[in-house]
Amino acid sequence: MIKKIESFQLDHLSMPAPQVRRAGIQTGPKGDVISKFDLRFLRPNTDAIPTGAVHTLEHLLATYLRDRLDGLIDLSPMGCRTGFYLTVWGDIDSETIKDALLYSLNRVVETEWEDVPGTTAKECGNYRDHSLFGAKEYARQVIEGFAKK
User: What dihedral do alpha carbons 80, 75, 12, 52 form, nearest 10°?
Assistant: First the structure.
């Protein structure tokens, strides 16, 4: 039997962006709780973040989100390049995640190249594919999108 993947069950044609959506919550055998969030930057099937920008956003958000979120497990770019998945320990609400995301995106806008972590060949598996300019542009777009809501 094929297991159903939560994100493949969504109607991507009517999905709004930007948005923070709790995509799931799981409780492990010892009672540990993990929450997964969909950090949607762009509407699916209308646009995609270029790889250099999504790569730099990944490095910066993985760093800056930890300033505001205890128990961050992972931040991963979506294959469709319209946003990120965020996994954290605990039962955390979407508003807390949104606040941490907005804080982090504002930090991205203020970042200088020398402050981007993990951009050398020793630290990164594709260190040549980064765009701080692009990361800043998409960060601004998401911040503005949330401000309009």
Answer: -30
Paired residues of 25 in beta bridges: 35
CATH of domain 15-148: 3.30.1360.80
Question: Any idea of the CA torsion for 124, 128, 133, 134, to the nearest 10 degrees?
Answer: -80
Say if CB 127 and CB 141 are below 8 A apart.
no
Coil/strand/helix, residue 36: strand
Q: Where are the domains of the chain?
A: 15-148
How far apart CA 83 and CA 58 sit, in angstroms, is 10
Phi/psi for 104 (5° steps) reads -65, -40
Cis peptide bond N-terminal to 44, omega within 30: no
Backbone angles phi, psi at 72, to 5 degrees: -70, 125
Model pLDDT for residues 94-147, shown as the tens digit of each residue: 999 999 999 999 999 999 999 999 999 999 999 999 999 999 999 999 999 999
